[in-house]
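Revision sheet: structure tokens.
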Amino acid sequence: MSHRKTLLAASIIAGLCLSMSLQAQDATQTNSASSNSNTQSANPQQQANPSQAKQLEAVTVVGIRASLQQSLETKRNADAIVDAITAEDIGKFPATNVAEALAQIPGVTLDRLFGATQRVSIDGIDPSLNLAFLDGHPVAQAMWLYGDSPNRGFNYSLLPPEILGSLEVYKSPEARLPEGSLGGTVIMHTIQPLDVPSNTLSGTSGVNYNDMVDKNRPNASVFYAWHTADKTFGVDVSLQHYEQKTDRQGQEIFGYTPVANIAAVNPAIAAQVAAGQLHPYDQMPNELNVANFEQTEKRSSVLVNLQYRPNDHFDSTLSLLYMVDRLDNLNVSLYPIPAFDFAGISRLASGGNNIVTSGTQVGTPCFNTTSCTSTAQSFMDNDARKSFIRTRGADWRGTYKGDGWRVFGQLGVSTSYNDISQAFKELFYGGGFNWNIHNGFNYTDLATANNPQYWADNNFGGNIGYKPYKARDQYGQFDFTKDFDGFLNNVQVGARWAAHWESQSLMIFNEGVPNMTLNQIGYGGLTNLKGASDVGLSGSSVRHVQTQGFDAIYNAVLNGNVLIANDPVDYWDNTFNVKQENTAAYGQLNFGNDTVHGNLGVRWVQTKISSWGYNVPSTCTTWNCVFPPGFGYVGSSSTNDNWLPALNVAWNVMPDLILRAAGSETVAYAPYNQYAPYFEANDTVLTATAGNPNLKPYRSVNGDLSAEWYFNSESVVAISGFYKNVLNYVVNAATTQGRQNGSWAQLIQGPTGQMLVSNGSCTLTGFCQYSVSAPINGGRAKVKGAAISYQQAFGDSGFGLRANYTYSDSSTHSGGPLPYNSKNSYTLAPYFEKGPYTASISYNYRSKYLAGGYVAGAPNAYTDSYKELDASAGYKFNDHFSLTFDMLNLLNSTYKQFYGSSMTQLANEYSSGREYLLQAHFKL
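Predicted:
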């Protein structure tokens, strides 16, 4: 019997599995005609040989154990090194989105910067260097956060899990799969209407609650599928609405200053150095910022699949996706800044590791005024951001089968748009404070500090920025497969064209915003930041004045004000347009018998990247600046050709023991904005990021090995190893560049601009020295590692266990690690299912890793080890109704980052609270 028969079974089962909202534990049946669309082609969702569909008459899917069994079957029968998840996995294990379900797979790690997961690493590779496809096609995604750096990593938290039936993670590539991944390719499948019974109706209604914000939000979804009696035409619809309240609180530190610089101008600190209480090389935090990020997400989506299969030869599906995601947020940062005025420092204390851990700043607060000077300076930044993403997609795919041959075609378009904006107000207080790096800060005169009449704009009324962001994908693909009898199963050839556009611009209106006191803006009382307390902060870090919130900030900036955009530098620095076109062709031989199976192929891809951005002389500071030749809105393009071979071999040493080997060459690409000649600056702290149109693709030569022992239908022990020799890896290089400060007209009026002039960072005209981080072709890098996974159901006890451990080591030619690579990560996930009861626990751990900085141009930071404990419980009343209760982040783990691998200079630490989801599920 050919190995393809078992693979077909896995594909049919995966197609039958309903989304998380279905929670299907009852039997689901379908006949062989429902799987005729499963053909092995270049399309990622096509895997099996349809000529053998008659071998299966019906499939029964029941509960967690059957779900895990079908996931194992997909893994077992794949030619490549593959892991799989079904909708039952997503629904029965603790997860609010697809990314959290992916964490159950060996080698998959999550980044928790914003609580709700956005970034997924595979085998220690940067999330931007992985690929994700929905039914074989890309989904355009606009950036959601004002000030964030765009990346190619798929934001799984924006994709509702209810639309999925199953997914696979390809850790070793095949020639038929689209290029662009160094780590892994995630293939997500929606439910097809001819694969489920007609008039299937199911849904979910629930509420989620976060204990830090003490508020709950609703969510609901519904799925309906219908098809004709002869199963020639069907339609299914997935509707979903989801709301989530997020509150992330903690501390941020933007850089450190050596004590020697302070002692040079402050006699009191010089005396401490002379007495041996401090060392000149000790580092003092520039400020201690208590940060509070608040967001209520409201996401609604609809997915429609229309499938037409008039006979056994032709199958066609049209998919339509529309999704809106409102992600308005308010970020409030209150930061006393000792480094702004060294003269106000009266005392410092070192706590070891050459870090100054505490100090005292003296100063005099100003009463009810918008112009204040003091040797103690505290700023409260209020960033009210509107973010509303609209994503649309239309995809058509069709298969025609002849006698031993078939053709497959797919084409479509996906667009995403976000008209991001940010209203900004910065309040000032001049009173003294004590600070401690472990506990935050406390104002020395609390009665004054907690009085709103001492807080006001200080010669800078704020601004509003509009930053429209657009993304668009177009694609077309054609594949031909010819079947053979014998060891050579078939040959596949195909071609694919894909184009992606990404653009942004920034217009800041900063003239006409009045200076206001806190009372005029709207005083909102004193805070009580539980999350700040959770990370060890106290005093004024937890309890301080605040505005009335999001609307108060927007109204203070906009209402009744005639605003003028007089900041052309920010517009020029933050406007870019990038287009990438990939033209690819491939050939692949698929071979196999009862002992050995696999594939051998090669893929050719030509990549053309065209980018546009502003190249502006430093002397240009006004809108009417005349650009000399070679300056202005300029474009650049580059073309690269790559041949990408891929070999996958699986050897059935015994019926239940499989050895695998894979070798390949892959390419990937830097984030789109890095190709643009842009310059995005933080004009207050003089850091910036810049683009590089001359970047070459990442190139990697890869080797993979694995051994898998399936000691029963629901159990496996698997060991794998991987090695990636990256021939070109893009890295960020830090340089110092002199540029005109785009916010100088406002900064020079206040203490910030005066400080920048006094310390030599800027001239009186605002020509400043920026610390710039820009990508360069960084040379070679290596990633090597191994993983072990274990899965077993313990007889009829109802208990089972999934566990895995991954070791991944990386290094660049200069000896540093690669971003997002944790050396050690593991998952321990026991579960129970018997009768109407289900329960599961998932504990995930990843060790420290290098990640990007928080603001534009900020230096890279190392993220500390992270622990996540989640749990889920469910009860099934009958075949039509069940309840589930999910509990996430039960440890309320702290997300913590440091500057430098020594992990001594704290960069930030956040707490996001525990999340609970109670959901009722029905199926009719």
